[in-house]
Structures are given as structure tokens and as C-alpha cells.
Amino acid sequence: MNADSPRKTLSVDLGERSYPIHIGPGLLDDGSLLRPHLAGRQVMIVTNETVAPLYLESLKRGLIGGAESDLDVRELILPDGEHTKTLASVERIWDALLAAGFNRRCTLIALGGGVIGDMTGYAAACYQRGVAFIQVPTTLLSQVDSSVGGKTGVNHPRGKNMIGAFWQPRAVLIDTATLKSLPARELTAGLAEVIKYGLIRDLDFLAWLEANMAALRELDDALLIDAILRSCTIKARVVVEDETEQGVRALLNLGHTFGHAIEAHQGYGNWLHGEAVGTGMAMAASLSRRLGWLDDDEVTRVTTLLEAAGLPLAAPSEMDAEAFIERMRLDKKNLDSRLRLVLLRTLGDACVHDDTPPTLLDEFLRDYPRT
Ligand SMILES: NC(=O)c1ccc[n+]([C@@H]2O[C@H](COP(=O)([O-])OP(=O)(O)OC[C@H]3O[C@@H](n4cnc5c(N)ncnc54)[C@H](O)[C@@H]3O)[C@@H](O)[C@H]2O)c1
Ligand SMILES: O=C(O)C(=O)C[C@@H](O)[C@H](O)[C@H](O)COP(=O)(O)O
Ligand SMILES: [Zn+2]
Q: Which residues participate in NAD(+) binding (predicted)?
């Protein structure tokens, strides 16, 4: 591969469990990138009813390659939507594996967005106490975030991602051409997680995003590949530092304490994950201002960039301060009765903070703008 090739590969370095992230246009039907990571001949592709008609055949063609292939490739097509990210859907994956007679050397391939990736990874983590899986993410959000790092799981009506496991994929294959069919609203949702990386760790990346947001939304190929590469590089570094979120990995949760509260409160329906995280990051910036950490200009930089990406800033009108607090009490980051929030000491430098005075938080939640 020459240096100018649009194809890039980086590695998540976890010793014996290290894996590559391949990024570039048209990778989906390049079976040579996937076949080395299969555990055996049994392969189950898990996808959904929206993605299957677009990309399933191409992935299968690449995997099977010539007529001489001895792979046993099956597929499971699930319904679409965040509300389907449940244990019942994961049971359907286990049923399909058992019905196919798949053994411990099978490989699951997640073809789709973060919902399919999180559920397939969790199914793999538990099936016969753990089998191989590969991520083939097809949304911007899943390409820059959910396919990397091994957080797998499902939602509970009371709280987001409450049931799950850390289970790393064997490889991540990011075909950037799949973004051409992604609805604009989903692209915007993915941009929230991209902006997150700039805010928590990389001020240069934040400035780059400010300069290039319009072109990214126009699907400029080279810029998108750059944004995905930079995002995956930051995420991979954080995951390598702290795979199971004992410390620094919690920073990847910027905006998520508020965001997950919004998603759970509205029943995993109207708001997309990225939209809730976008609003959650605006809320985190505003609370950081109240604590005297950010100044007004810095908060304006955050909100201007989120707006330029097309993300909502206002919290849902049906959520009052009590509703936020009640939902946030269930957040997985909390270790005792105090709420642990990811806030911004300055732009490009996030921290976990469990010392926000309850009255200040309450006032902040009452005052924060609503839709
Ligand atoms: N595991 C992690 O580290 C992690 C990180 C971030 C988010 N998540 C989870 O990821 C989920 C959100 O992921 P998402 O934003 O990808 O949502 P999603 O999986 O629901 O996909 C969004 C929509 O786009 C459709 N779609 C997917 N690819 C497409 C394509 N190429 N063309 C057209 N349509 C396409 C899907 O069918 C769906 O309707 C949430 O459940 C969130 O909690 C997990
Ligand atoms: O990989 C991580 O770590 C993240 O926190 C990434 C988040 O963008 C993602 O939404 C993740 O699923 C949140 O995890 P949770 O543990 O807060 O449920
Ligand atoms: Zn997220």
C-alpha cells in the first residue's frame, strides 16, 4: 500500500488480543482483509433490515471469494432501531447460532451501525462462553466509536447499556463508501462522537473540525477518512491505556451522563444516541462554565461547532431537573451516592468530577434551555 493510498490501517494494541482497524473506500468486498481473522469455517453475519439490502451481498461475495471456498456463511437479519437493542434480540442471535449447529470456532460478523455491533459483540461474548467476532461498521458513529474498544451490550428500560461485557473484536473493517447511503441525520449523529474526541483530548483536532465541518457534512471523501482515522487513533489509545474503564476511558463518556438520561427517559425512541450526546456535551460545557472552568468564549466555541454539525443543543422539554437527576443516579460511572460527570477543565482537556455541589447541579438543570 503506498503512502497516498486512501486505505489506512491502525492497530489496537492489546497484546495477544491486538487487532487491526482497516479504513478506506471499497473494503467491504475485499475478503483478504477479513478471512485471516475467522476462527474457523462457520460464519454468521448479523445485520438489519435496512443494511442487508445495501451491503450484505457485497460482504458475502468478498468473504466467500471463489467457488472453491469451504466457508459455511449464514446470515441473520434483525429489525432496525435503538428500541431493538435488547436481550430478546441477542437471544435471536443465539437461537440462530444453535439452529445452525455453530461451535466454539465460529465467527460472528456485525454488519451495520452501533446497535448491531453492540448486540452482536455481546452475543459473541456469551455464546459458548465466548467466540470470535468482527466489526464491519456502516454508520459514521460506529466507524469512529462503537466498533472499536470492545464495549458490547444492550439497553434496559431503566438505563442505557446496563447489560453487557467487554469483548474485543478480532478486526474492524471500515468501508467509508458505505457512508454514501447514510441519511444526513445519522451522519450528524456520528459527528457528535467525532467532536467528543477533540473536546476531551485534542485541541488541534477540534480546530480542524471547526475549519472543515461544512465539507465533512458534504461527504468530502478525503476529509471523512481523515476524521475517521484521527477519531479511531484517539479511541484506540484510550482503550489501550484503560481497557475496562477503571480510569481514563471514562473520558469517552463526555456528554453521555446527560445523553443516556435523555435516551432512557424517552424510551430509546425519538432522539438518536449521537443527538443526545451532542446535547449532553453542550450541557457538560455549560456546567463547566458554572464551575468556573470554561469561559464564555470557550462555551460558545463548543455550541457553535455542535450547531455547525447540525446537532441539537436544548434538552427535551418533558425532562425536568428531577427527571435528569433520577436517571443520572443509575449511570454506571457512579461508585457511591455522588454523581460522577465528565466535564471540561478547558477545551481539549476533560476530567471526571464527582464533586459538583447538588444545589449547583439542581439550579443548572432547572436553568438549562429546553426544546
Ligand atoms: N460500544 C461502544 O463503544 C459504543 C460507542 C458509541 C455508541 N454506541 C452505541 O451505538 C448505538 C448507536 O449507533 P448508530 O448511531 O450507528 O445507530 P444505529 O445502529 O441505529 O444505525 C443508525 C441507522 O442507520 C442505518 N444504517 C446503518 N448503516 C447504514 C448505511 N450505510 N446506509 C444507510 N443506513 C444505514 C441503521 O439501520 C439505523 O437505522 C447506540 O446504541 C449507542 O449506545 C456504542
Ligand atoms: O468506548 C467507550 O468507553 C465509550 O464510552 C464510548 C461511548 O461513545 C459509547 O456510547 C459507550 O457505549 C458508552 O458506554 P457506557 O459504558 O457509558 O454505557
Ligand atoms: Zn457514545
A: 80-85, 114-118, 138-139, 151, 160
